Amino acid sequence: MYRISELAREVGLSRSTLLYYEKLGLIKGQRQLNGYRVYTNGDLQRLKLLLQLQAGGLSLKECLACLDAKVDRQLLEERLATLETEIAQKVQAKVLLSSLLGMDSMRSWHQAMDKQAPDAHFDWLLKQGFTEKQALKLRWLSQDMNVHDQYIGEFDAVFNGLERLGPGSAADTLRAWGKLPDSNGAVLEIGCGKGISTQVLAHHTRGSILAIDNDELTLCVAKLNLAAQQLSEPVRFVCASMTQLPFDSAKFDVVWAEGSAYIMGVEKALKYWRRFLKSTGFIVFSDLVWFTDEPSTKAKMYWSTQYPDMQTVEYRIEQIKRLDFEIIDHFSLSQEAWDNYLQPLKAKLMEHATGTIDTIVLSDLKDEIDIHDNYLGEYGYQFFITKLKR
Ligand SMILES: C[S@@+](CC[C@H](N)C(=O)[O-])C[C@H]1O[C@@H](n2cnc3c(N)ncnc32)[C@H](O)[C@@H]1O
Question: Which residues, if any, are the signal sequence (predicted)?
Fold first, then answer.
């Protein structure tokens, strides 16, 4: 037998709550000769059950109905579904907190956030003290901010000495260039990397090229490459971010972006870059796209984290038109373009297999190669030659 104060202590509820429950008929005190009310073990057990049902999200009324054996299955199923969602959210919140403390990897969180709320995620990274360049690189590499410095250093070490940072070939660059009406305009090349395409453009232009990249070291290599080919004449290099271009508007005839628009997002890039074009200007860019509406699960899963905004060619075309550009032409990059990127990368990975590079970097690059080896063809790179609508 329990007095009300003892019962209150056992279940962690106040006296007044118990009296209220008694009024509702959940528990039934028996008045003793000395005037005190006492409660049985049965009362205690009903209270414990009630608390558990309440913790499951049931209202007091629903709990009482349940305790009286009138179980409403549909209601319980609904509560169960809600509970499962809440548990999943809590698990995610737990992973986030432990990741922020460096106890867990934040990679999947970053990837999910970048997909669901790219702008908010990006702003948040800046608030964590990352520069715009670092934050974009995290996005570019689909990485976790906790492994930032080491990962990026080692990633750069693998690519050091490799000409191409993505697929491309001189023939494809030239094919796209040939779609432009003349070759004497002012070209703004964005994300020029080591200047491989810049060399092709420099060979064929009768105008000028302003090539930008936000990586000083990469730009130095680009300058040396151009100088070695005696192609420096029409080219000027500027270290700048594609998201904050230090140029006057309406200055260029062509914006050229091979494998770089995705870094800030194709839609954002087209909307922002257009202001630097003359009214008759062109944007020529290449982007990773799906060639099928029904890709294999593995490929789909891989790219959903590595490039969440990857789209079909048809989608990109509609998007380009919606943004007030005409499509002059579009075509898929050749096998040669992929070989130029993948063959040296594979050789470099072999070299590093027994070296000091962290296994995460190597295994990430191996995963990428594995996906290309098995699923390239379901997706690929597409060149889009677009012109501002009048
Ligand atoms: C995949 S590579 C493509 C390089 C080159 N266009 C090519 O096809 O070989 C992307 C390039 O964009 C540069 N990049 C990344 N973020 C950038 C930014 N915010 N502004 C300018 N360049 C950026 C990288 O340094 C890198 O050189």
Answer: none
pLDDT in tens, 191-235: 999 999 999 999 999 999 999 999 898 999 999 999 999 999 999
Task: Quote the CA–CA distance of 68 and 251 in Å, as a whole number.
Answer: 78
Q: Ligand 1 pocket test: which of 136, 260, 276 has the largest number of ligand atoms within 8 Å of its C-beta? A: 260
Residue ranges around ligand 1 (CB below 6 Å): 136, 140, 164-166, 168, 191-193, 196-197, 212-215, 218, 241-243, 258-260, 263
Pocket test for ligand 1, best of 162, 194, 213 (most atoms within 8 A of CB): 213
Mark out the alpha helices in 167-312 (DSSP H runs): 170-177, 196-204, 216-228, 261-264, 266-273, 297-306
Grouping H, G, I as helix, E, B as strand and the rest as coil, residue 17 is: helix
Domain with 379 in it: 170-388
pLDDT at 171: 98
User: Is residue 81 in a domain?
Assistant: no
pLDDT of residue 223: 94
β-strand partners of 290: 312, 379
CB 164, CB 199: distance < 8 Å:
no
pTM as predicted: 0.73
Residue 14 in domain: yes
CATH code of the domain containing 331: 3.40.50.150
**Atom 11 in ligand 1: which residue has the minimum CA distance?**
191
d(CA 202, CA 215): 20
- How far does the centroid of ligand 1 lie from the alpha carbon of residue 213, in Å? 6
139 part of a folded domain: no
The domain that holds 31 is classified in CATH as 1.10.1660.10
- Helix or strand holding residue 15 (H, E): helix 15-24
Q: What's the domain count of the chain?
A: 2
Residue 282 within any structural domain of the chain: yes
Stated length of the chain: 390
User: Residue 219 has which token pair?
Assistant: 């730009």
Q: Where do we find the tokens 């590595």? A: 306
User: Residue 61: is its pLDDT beyond 70?
Assistant: yes
